[in-house]
Amino acid sequence: MTSRRRAIGLALAVVLAALLLVWLWPAAHRLVFGTGPATDHVVVSGNIEAHQSVLSFTGVQAPITRLVFDEGKFVSAGTVLARVDDSIYSRQLQIDQAGLDVARHQVAVARSNRAAAKSTVASDALDLAEKRRDLVRDEGQLASGAVSRQTYDLATTAAGQSAAVLARDDALLHVAQTNVGLALANVQAAQAKVALDTVTLGYTTLRAPFSGVLAVRQAELGELAGPGVAIFTLDDLDHVWLRAYVNEPDLGKIRLGEAAQVTTDTYPGHVFHGRIGFIAAQAEFTPKTVQTHAERVTLVYRIRIDIDNPTHALLPGMPADASIALLAPGP
């Protein structure tokens, strides 16, 4: 009789436990992916995430000569994080700077040649004018017999030769002017090389593009750095968000831009203010971290809650909860 009573009691306990589990399961499920005890709010849970940037050297390839910080260090925008050997790039800048100096001297020489050519053309023009006056005078005296035919022919030849010299020197003046243009173009090309060398030399220093925390250090001194070789991963703590999921029945009751109250166990009693910045257009299965079959087959929608984090209190990976007021469903 005693054994029978024990069996009946055990069976009743199992039934009661099963009923209690069935009663509590929807509430527990709603706390993670749906509405909580209050029907006018939805409570979602997730982890804090941040914008990440993988930093590497651009346009240069050389051994790393300086690594300033380790992981976990907060750095301000513009802080020098690493350097590579810049000897080759510095030398190239010196060579091209010397080429620029030569190009500038060539401009000065070309301008001097042009000035000389102008003076020569002016002298030739004066000589031609004189020869033509002599020819006109000898032509008048030839008719009266004051000069011989030979003298007139010599004057004619002299005037022709002077005109030819003027034409030749005028052509040389055009060449001199062209040389000045080429010299100026060479200066511009040399300046462009120097500017490119200066930019490339600047690439030998890796600076923080924004203020944040160095989450990962992926290189060591002496390693060969180059484009695409990760050196640091930098987290932007000024822009963090909470990744969470909501059930389909609650999807039509929340809106983009809607305010959310975010809390975390790290700072009990403190509320962080955020807004819904993204709502997925397609459903997906619940995250793989959920182990039970019942939760794995549930379809949910991913949302992102952007959070104000001016003091950098919230860090990537930190678990957090968010409470969102449910609105009247509608388009």
Task: Give a quick precis of the structure.
By secondary structure, this protein is of the alpha+beta class.
Give an account of the 3D structure.
With 331 residues, this protein is an alpha+beta fold. It has a domain of 116 residues. The protein is 46% helix and 26% strand. The strands form two sheets. The protein has a six-stranded antiparallel β-barrel with strand order 1-8-12-10-9-13. A four-stranded antiparallel beta sheet has the order 5-4-2-7, with no helix packed on it. Strand 9 and strand 10 form a beta hairpin.
Tag the structure with descriptive keywords.
331 residues, alpha+beta, six-stranded antiparallel beta barrel, four-stranded antiparallel β-sheet, 5 helices, 13 strands, 26% strand
